[in-house]
Amino acid sequence: MKNSLTCHCGTESSSVFPQSPEKQTIKFFLILLLLPLCLSLSAQNTTSQDSVIKEKLKLANKLILANGHERAFQLYSECAAAGSGYAMNAIGILKQRGWGTEQDEVGSIQWFMQAAKAGYARAYYNLFNIYAKALGVEQNFVNAVNYLDTLQNTTLRSVALMWLGYYYYKGFGVVQNYETAVSYFLQAAEFNNADAFYFLGLCYRNGYGVEQNEAEAQYYLSRAVELGHYYSFEELQEETTEVIPQPQHIAMKSGNSETEKFQIPREYRKINRQNFKENVLGEYVGTIVMYDYSGKHIVNATELKIRFDDTQNGKIYGQWIEADTLFTDFEAILTDSTLQFLNTEYRHTERYSRHISKKWKFNNAVLEKTDTDSVSYLVGNIQQYDMKLKEPRKPLYISLQKSKVADNAGQQGKDFMITYPNPFDNEINILFSLENEQNVTLSVYGINGMLLDSQNLGILTAGKHNYLLTFSAPQGQYLLVLQKGNRKISNLIIKK
To answer: Minimal CA–CA distance to 323: which of 435, 418, 242, 238?
Structure first.
């Protein structure tokens, strides 16, 4: 499927449901976002045209199927001159594709606008798709959403409702809001829209805009499966939610302050720009954290290394390494607080594209560098772009420290402890893994080695564990020590 409008016979639907990943190489989201505009060239759409125009449109349809594009373009032009919105829309598509005429993506927009004014609803969908996918224009989700609003009053209402729900779900062109997304999905579901059932399943499974309810999730996902939605079937096989379960809260004190337990949600933190350029070379080790589209729920945390190897002529060169398995070299323009990546991409899978390695483009990073007497910390927001979907990826946050004192920050395999964000304000998330069932104790030490507080977490099962530590202490550096059995893992943490 190409990133352009399509012209073929048939009817328009909201999605294409592949039977298996092997038979369909494009994942559901791509299918959803590149929803093809089917140019259903049939006589029933032109009942208001005289018989001559009808015959010309029928002939043009046959010529399209037979690759007689030039003659088809001529016939559509004659019908458009007679006022046919249907033909105007067809000319827009042919100009988009360069079929029977010179390819002119920008010029096609005027034809779609004329078709829309003539009352042809599918032209509004084309205009939405043009701005959503940047087909000859700069990508503009606000314009795309405006055309979806117009589509609500047409025969394509169910499609518009589904897309509006999708955009509120992700926050493209609108203020991200799961509750509003659910409202649109429910309306689209009334039209038996399989995509809407799928997203309702995701919302109930993860607690997005509704109270988390696995039974409701199973119901909506099953409804989608009944309609042939493969990726709903795949989601039903998942044993866990997308969201990392909310951590258990623990609180510690500095030794002089009273313990206080804050119930602050773990949220994506935007980094303010500050001087980063000085003395950045070296290896940084830590974590990259992915949040959901609202920025309030962590969905993944992966070990990360960034090597800044060299600077030349205002550029910096290095290597990005995730979990010791994903590598990409990068070139970037270095400013006081940002990295502007240049043609940097990599491929990997994720929860919703397990069978297909997707391409991600690095855009910019806004970074904050903190230097102490013994260690440098680097935190920031990374912007990545999905090259298939043509849309921003979920929010990413990195928390790293310079590797000369980060012996424990990037341990691989089943034996690791990750702390983020670092530096932190009042709370810091602790994600660690146990290879076997063990007794675990968490302790905080001052930089002078004095024990400030310690809590025994009890005997924990093998696997990953997640805790949110509220630490009421003055600003400064502390050593967080996790003792599991006879082994200790320590991370240096900084409280702002």
So the answer is: 418
Look up residue 387 and give its two tokens. Answer: 């090259």
pLDDT at 231: 87
pLDDT along the chain (496 residues), means of 10: 39 39 29 32 47 90 92 95 94 94 94 94 94 94 96 93 98 98 98 97 97 97 95 91 84 52 44 61 89 90 90 89 91 86 91 86 87 74 93 91 56 63 84 88 85 91 88 84 85 82
The pTM of the full predicted model, rounded to 2 decimals, is: 0.80
Closest residue by Cα to residue 379 from 241, 246, 493, 210: 493
β-pairing verdict for 298-312 and 282-291: antiparallel
Say how far apart CA 302 and CA 296 lie, in whole Å: 18
* Domains (range + CATH), the chain: 28-236 (1.25.40.10), 248-495 (2.60.40.1930)
Q: What pairs with residue 353 in β-bridges?
A: none
- Which structure tokens are listed for 463? 């696997």
Q: Is the dihedral of CA 87, 89, 90, 94 positive or negative?
A: positive
What pLDDT is attached to residue 374? 67
Query: CA 196 from chain center: how many Å?
Result: 18
CA distances (Å), 401 to each of 342, 380, 449, 465, in order?
24, 12, 20, 22
How crowded is the C-beta side of 420, counted as CA atoms within 13 Å?
Answer: 33
Cα-Cα end-to-end distance for the chain: 50
DSSP 63-90: HHHTT-HHHHHHHHHHHHHTT-HHHHHH
Closest by alpha carbon to 16, among 278, 280, 231? 231
Q: 450: how many CB neighbours lie within 10 A of its CB?
A: 9
Torsion of CA 253, 254, 257, 260, to 10 degrees: -20
Q: What six digits make up the tokens of 491?
A: 């991370």
CA distance 51 to 281: 74
Q: Which of 203, 267, 187, 197 is nearest to 230 (CA)?
A: 197
Spatial separation of the C-alpha atoms in residues 281 and 308, rounded to whole Å: 5
Long-range CB pairs of 95-102 (<8 Å, 24+ gap) are 96/4, 96/5, 96/135, 96/136, 97/4, 97/5, 97/7, 99/7, 99/64, 99/69, 99/72, 99/73, 100/69, 100/70, 100/71, 100/72, 100/73, 100/74, 101/69, 101/70, 101/73
The percent of the chain in helix, strand and coil, each rounded to the nearest 5, is: 30, 30, 40
Report yes or no: 133 and 390 within 8 Å, Cβ to Cβ. Answer: yes
